[in-house]
Amino acid sequence: MSTPLTLDPGQALGRLPELTVIDVRTPGEYASGHLPGALNIPLDQLRRALPAVRGARGELLLVCASGARAENAQDILAEHGVRAMTLTGGTNGWAGRGHELHRPAPGTRASWSMERQVRLTAGTVVLAGLGLGQLHPAWLLLSAGVAGGLVFSALTNTCGMAALLAKLPHNRPRPADLDATLARLAGRGAATSSAEATDVA
For residues 21 and 84, what is the distance between their CA atoms, to the nearest angstrom? Predict the structure, then answer.
């Protein structure tokens, strides 16, 4: 029986203890609420994390806000021979089904979801283009460019603006945080290998 490529929230809930859950959102989004036990490895750091991801225990479940970034992460891992599943509807779908979200201790930074950041940025640029267009019609191309970008984003299920926003300091992991996450991931894999060796003996 082949491993499914997706799990719905109900299926994931029942299998959560046996899964390694990787949340590919930004650290701020992760801090706003994540699946219990999920490890935060932002999408743009996934290739760096490949050695640790390969050694993870059990099956991998990739999670983001709604599912698009997790699917991108799934494609990246597949290119490197690593099989992973995604959560249907992402963290939003999980919470929508009434399942628990974990949040770090008070004082940990949190930020808007990437979708909300994109909406704010796109709306601001469109309004700026329309306003500046009153001074010179050429500025209207700015608004038209954003509109075209949003259409392209919908058709391809990608988002260049989100990729750019993810590079801003408040959306990037601190090196020490990412190193600690990778160490935890490697530790899980080592513990599983040790347990399997004990069972064989």
Answer: 10
Residues 6+ apart with CB under 8 A from 134: none
Count CA atoms within 13 Å of residue 187 on its CB side: 7
58: Cβ–Cβ under 8 A, 6 or more apart, which residues? 18, 19, 20, 192
The predicted model scores a pTM of 0.68
**Would you call 80 helix, strand, or coil by DSSP?**
coil
Q: Is 26 exposed, middle or buried (0-12, 13-18, 19+ CB in 10 A)?
A: buried
Determine the Cα–Cα distance for residues 112 and 109; give it in Å rounded to an integer. Answer: 11
pLDDT digits (tens, 9 = 90+) for 69-121: 999 999 999 999 999 999 999 999 999 999 999 886 555 555 666 777 788 88
Nearest to 25 by CA among 58, 66, 53, 83: 66
